[in-house]
Amino acid sequence: MRISYRFVTVxxxxxxFLMLLAPGATxxxxxxxxxxxxPSVVFAGVAGLAWEDVTEEDMPTLYELAGxxxxxxxxxxxxxxRTCAVDGWLTVGSGRRATDLIDSxxxxxxxxxxxxxxxxxxxxxxxxxxxxxxxxxxxxxxxAYSATPGLLGAQLNEHGMCATAxxxxxxxxxxxxxxxxxxxxxxxxxxxxxxxxxxxVTVVDLGALPPPAPAGSDETARQAALDQRRQVARGIDDxxxxxxxxxxxxxxLLVAGISDSGPTAIPLHNDPSRVASSALRVAxxxxxxxxxxxxxHRWLTSGSTQWSGIVQLTDVASxxxxxxxxxxxxxxxxxxxxxxxxxxxxxxxxxxxxxLSINTAAQIYRTQSAPFFQILGAAQLVxxxxxxxxxxxxxxxxxxxxxxxxxxxxxxxxxxVASFLANxxxxxxxxxxxxxxxxxxxxxxxxIATFALTGPWRRHAYGPAGVAGGITxxxxxxxxxxxxxxQQLSLxxxxxxxxxxFYGLGNIPFAIFIVACLVAAGALAQWLIGRGSSRxxxxxxxxxxxxxxxxxxxxxxxxxxxxxxxxAIPAFTVLAxxxxxxxxxxxxxxxxxxxxxxxxxxxxxxxxxxPPGSRSHFGSFFEDLVSGEAWTVVWRKFDASLGTLERLPxxxxxxxxxxxxxxxxxxRPASEGLRETIRQWPTMTYVAWSALMAGAAGFAANDSGIxxxxxxxxxxxxxxxxxxxxxxxxxDGIERPEELTGVSGARAL
Length: 749
Fold this sequence. Notes:
Elements (H helix, E strand, L loop, with lengths): L1 H20 L18 E8 L12 H9 L1 E6 L9 H10 L26 E2 L5 E2 L3 H8 L10 H8 L4 E4 L1 H7 L5 E2 L1 E3 L7 H5 L3 E8 L10 H28 L4 E9 L20 E7 L11 E5 L7 E3 L3 H8 L14 E6 L4 H46 L4 H24 L11 H22 L8 H19 L25 H24 L4 H20 L7 H19 L5 H23 L8 H11 L2 H18 L1 H19 L4 H9 L3 H18 L5 H25 L10 H7 L1
Parallel strand pairs: 1-8, 1-9, 2-12, 5-7, 5-8
Antiparallel strand pairs: 2-10, 3-4, 4-6, 9-10, 11-13
């Protein structure tokens, strides 16, 4: 008991120290703003606008801006996976993910089309009201993102700032909480210099690009739809050119694709939907930033993404409020104001090409990531199951089968880190990016597996597994501590289209990272014990790795994984107890879990002390805790976690069965092969139990639910199987280089 509490106490102290040293820990560290008049802003939204539309022929004005001004890809993800125009405009006005009516016709099924923005009703004072506003407000109550339609308009009104809405979509964005707009003009062509000068904030609805041809259309229909889209794009570009000409001094122009699709026709029962697929959209900023500095040819980013060249639709509200001069523009919003981060290429062609490659990578992730997980899991079942059957039916083939299993298991375990390292190569710029990606991953997988299998550590059953786990853990720790660049758009990493997370450790990478750390720590501890070190020394190594892993997982400057702390600390407590040789009890497990919660709350409180624009997920959660909205967040995550059991029934059945089987065979190892493995690697039992603990805690603390323990098993089982195969090859004298156990063999390493 004393060991686990000391472990947790050191963790808490280290977290406190890191947080106090963290950049941006106090409000005084915010960048100073330029003195002078506060710039005004015009935000122009176009439904469906993507970088594919921005060509020199069709949209020359916007194309030129991409080369001379700030640019980025915009994540338009809202509540539905495919964002409609009304969803987008409501999200602009809410600063949180919002949606149109999911079932607008009341037929009991989700809509397969996008509605147009309602036409506002004029009043006598030059304003207007949005019809059906109450329905929009009620719809958000059925979802767990706590969106408040009208937040942007209400904040401006509260601070005495006027705003002008031009077009029906703009009215949705600038309406206050009662659906009223103070100043409304119906037509984008009215947005001249005088109109723009009336208020510090002007929002213009520039319309929508036509949807693509329905799926299954012939070439003629697809070409006709493309020609129509290009024609409309030219008209929108003319409006953007006019806005530039009419911009007053010290006024910025922000242009964004606010949705995946504009209004679409209602399809017949058997017709495919014409709502465009989710993709990255356009974001361009021209003129002065809110602090008075010029944007210039730089990449746009925001505090919500911390990703150079990526911003979110939810950032727009806080960006406009920043221009309005509000002291706290992020209040009530999950977004952060747009800012800049590094220069993009000087030419429009190179800039647009780079942004197109990002969307290409995002689409490969969208189409290939989920199938890959299923194939990887099924392939393991077939491969390992077939090998087991072969061993039982053909004992004479034992040597080659065990060799194949050993090599195959290490190769499978090397794949995740290879998929991350592939991002060090510009695969998305190849003519066939998917082929390039898989080729790079294959070469890296073979290289890493060969290294793990051929070094002097191969003399130990746990050696290759420990090295493969150590490489994975080290690469991922370095990556998340330096900006998560390898995770961005990798098959197992972060996707700006999915928009679940933009930096730090996502739920899938967390599962891979934590099991790699546990296996590496267990292997290192066993090696230390084997070479004659005391259990105290071996246990100290486990504690050090646990400290480092938990800091990487939870530090707001690195992994920033809110649920990761709640899973990592109990998991490493289990492993440390086993290495120290202390009896594992329920009381110790409960104590470590409570301590993990205490560390989590301490980190959240410290992060909350920073300025709102600098807070990570921890500080945002603590803010929800203070405001009383934390239960909504917790319930949303819990509901989403349980929802994975329904959406993924095969995981719901196989994961609990796998847990029960692993607990049974490690508690009462009936097979000679497993007993031999435990004899050579006694800490393996605690490695398995600690991994199961991490998966169970991850299921409870994260909205990915059953996916976390499932992926933890997918990444961890090959490492354990490789040790089992190696131990039994050693037992049979297969390629036995020398004495494999005991002090003499360990010292020979």
